[in-house]
Amino acid sequence: MTPDGPLAGYADLPAHLAGAPVVSFPDADRRRLAEILGVRAATATEVRVEREWTADGVRGRELSWSLGFGPRTRAFLLTPVEHNGVLPGLLALHCHGGIRSTGAEQLVETACAPHPSAAHLRAAYYAGRAVASDLARAGFAVLAHDAFSWGSRAFDLSAPSPKLAAQIDALEAFWREHGGMPSDEERFDAVSSLHEDHLAKALGVLGTTLAGMVAGDDLAAFELLASLPEVDDDRLGIAGLSGGGGRAALLGALDRRVAASVVACMMATSSSLVPGYLDAHSWLLHSPGLAAWRDWPAVAAMTDGRMLVQYGERDPLFPPAGMRAADAALATALGDRYTGRWFDDGHEWTAPMQDDAIGWLRGALG
Q: What is the CATH number of domain 45-151+210-365?
């Protein structure tokens, strides 16, 4: 057996979880949500600026920080080159995408050639655009970070456990049989998809969930964003596509300071996903016990801020009836704080959808 099993690269995680209580909130609903997800408090410390650049009207800074466990987090802070005073702050949340070899870079033009996986995701899901950079050009201070188990926060899969190794052997046999081996990045992403089930099991044993660990990373990044001198902490928003949209829904439910959130292609009733659509989604959405406690739209409706949800009429990952029911439930729960928009698209953040989100955020945050 390998000593760290599915936690290789995070040997300090069990001790961290044992010593960090579940985040407590004054109100019962947020407290219960944090308990179901197993969200632990984490704080970004030892924050460093790794490099800076200026291009196309955007000042970029690559940051890194420690959360006290696992590898350091890589992030990008983007602001307009020219601005007067403080800016509304926005946390840009990358998608799941079945790709863990990169994280936040899929959203950012860094003045360097993009990581191959970031370039692939941008082309496949973001209409070839760097959403975070566009948001900075629109007048926001934007922070985009690698979430737990993605990019800089990925796990070490170089010495897999015997069970995972057997699955990798089967995968490699499939590749050989079908006449081609993937690139190093593609292989890592394929193995990471297999590893997610092993990771979810380990996290459950330790009293948390994948969504809870990601939410802890997101809360720490949101706290850092709010503390920045160029950010108006009364005008804070979050936005994401797919898994990033799910992260936005949870972060908006947990942190009362979220004034505006954009959830793109990540909304339907929980019952509409069971059982036929379970395999279409990861452990990031299907946290044990969550759907039994509260429907997914009802979780999203816990936000104290305004919410834009964008739906793809042809999204293959969500049943149309489930999306329509969620749209109606959110309209009832949030009233004029809710905007639901429908697009004749699939599971992607198209250019018109991104432009719509940017315009809505400018109106919501000023």
A: 3.40.50.1820
